[in-house]
């Protein structure tokens, strides 16, 4: 199946004649399709971008198309297919109930975590977020940050295979710093929320 998808994408590239940065026109559409039905892994687009555009530009291009796809699927599901999706996927989502609760409770931070690691398909993250009480603006920025984290991490992994002679030390060090900053911001935010909740309980008692 993977080989068939790769061949189909190669055919589309040859058919459209797109090359260089213009390839983003095609991969954005493919990313939206992937985010809806997940018929091929998102890493396919990452490898494609890196192969055609190089490491740095390829990572940025993948971040862009991934963020656009995440936002488009979220809004379409939220405003057009919310009821249908809830009926169609309700039982399947039971296996991800704990993550739905995490999105409801932690909001942006749960989305960043889920988009960083391949715990569940990208389309389910968008669908579940559309069913949650999370604000659209919160979903947008958390998906952008989470997609960046995902691309950064898997860019490091895939680049070591595609470009074995490339020095990835700065890419790895910068990603570690990025993760540390996120963890620090989350800790501060969570502590403030916890403190406010505790203060309200103290005042009410």
Automatic annotation (TrEMBL):
The protein's predominant localisation is membrane
The VTT domain covers 40-154
Q: What one GO molecular function would you report for this record?
A: transferase activity
Subcellular location(s) of the protein: Cell membrane
Entries under Pfam families matching the protein = VTT_dom
Q: Name one GO cellular component term.
A: plasma membrane
User: What is the recorded name of this protein?
Assistant: TVP38/TMEM64 family membrane protein
UniProt organism field: Paenibacillus crassostreae
Q: What is the lineage of its organism?
A: Bacteria, Bacillati, Bacillota, Bacilli, Bacillales
């Amino acid at each position: 199946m993977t080989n068939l998808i790769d061949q189909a994408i190669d055919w589309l590239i040859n058919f459209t004649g797109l090359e260089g940065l213009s390839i983003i026109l095609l991969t954005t559409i493919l990313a939206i399709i992937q985010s809806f039905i997940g018929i091929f892994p998102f890493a396919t687009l990452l490898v494609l971008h890196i192969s055609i555009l190089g490491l740095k530009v390829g990572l940025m291009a993948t971040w862009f198309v991934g963020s656009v796809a995440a936002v488009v699927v979220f809004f379409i599901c939220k405003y057009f297919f919310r009821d249908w999706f809830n009926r169609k996927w309700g039982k399947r989502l039971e296996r991800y109930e704990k993550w739905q609760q995490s999105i409801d409770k932690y909001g942006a931070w749960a989305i960043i975590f889920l988009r960083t690691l391949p715990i569940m398909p990208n389309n389910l993250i968008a669908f579940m977020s559309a069913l949650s009480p999370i604000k659209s603006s919160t979903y947008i920025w958390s998906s952008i940050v989470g997609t960046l984290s995902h691309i950064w991490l898997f860019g490091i992994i895939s680049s070591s295979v595609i470009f074995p002679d490339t020095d990835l030390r700065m890419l790895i060090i910068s990603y570690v710093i990025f993760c540390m900053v996120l963890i620090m911001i989350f800790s501060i935010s969570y502590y403030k929320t916890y403190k406010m909740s505790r203060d309200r309980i103290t005042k009410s008692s």
